[in-house]
């Protein structure tokens, strides 16, 4: 049988007269499967996965709850372009750009590794009479419910590093413990100054 088709049994024909012997060759299908995971969430569910093959309609699916996916594609001598749609807050670690070419002559496995985007929140705490305030406790509640705390340095500055990205507005809440003898004059804003 030609490449990409399954072999079929021979047809017996009599040779006492002209005969017709038609063959219908079943197409061979191969699977492309794997998983999508990230360093912060583990298995990534609901990630769109697409396989594009020249001259054919693209095949698409989404990852299951355990991050796995499977696509069934018709045999092709040409490789297919496999890609995932990377959501906001994630970056492709491997393969680069979240895309790879896969052979479609046999079953293939292709895993995708993603990295969570991390951000910093910083600012300063100052007073209108003493300038920068040292040792003021600053708290941050992040979008995942995580509680972080730090204190201002001699310049009145504070920094929260490596917080997980969130597309939600007002995803984090920053607050301070107002020292005795001070009152809040301006609200605390991430990345901006707070005056007491």
Write up this protein:
This protein has 196 residues and is mainly beta. It has no helices and 17 strands. Strands 1, 2, 5, 7, 9 and 10 form a six-stranded mixed beta sheet that branches. The protein is rod-shaped. The N and C termini lie far apart (83 Å). 20% of the residues are buried. The C terminus is likely disordered.
Question: Short summary of the structure?
Answer:
This protein has 196 residues and is mainly β.
Helices and strands, with pairings:
Layout: E1 29-38, E2 42-43, E3 48-52, E4 59-62, E5 68-74, E6 76-84, E7 90-94, E8 99-104, E9 108-109, E10 112-116, E11 118-127, E12 131-132, E13 137-141, E14 147-151, E15 157-164, E16 173-176, E17 193-195
Parallel strand pairs: 1-9, 1-10, 11-17
Antiparallel strand pairs: 1-2, 1-5, 3-4, 3-6, 6-8, 7-10, 11-12, 11-15, 13-14, 13-16
Spans of 5+ residues with little confidence (pLDDT < 50)?
189-196
Supply the number of helical segments: 0
- Average pLDDT over all residues: 85
Structural class: mainly beta
Order of helices and strands: EEEEEEEEEEEEEEEEE
Q: Which oligomerization state do the chains in this entry correspond to? A: single chain
- Our Rg estimate from Cα atoms comes to 30 Å
Taken from the alpha-carbon principal axes, the silhouette is: rod-shaped
The helix fraction, in percent, is under 10%
Q: Count the strands?
A: 17
Strand content: over 45%
| Biggest sheet overview | 6 strands, mixed
Provide tags for this entry.
196 residues, mainly beta, disordered C terminus
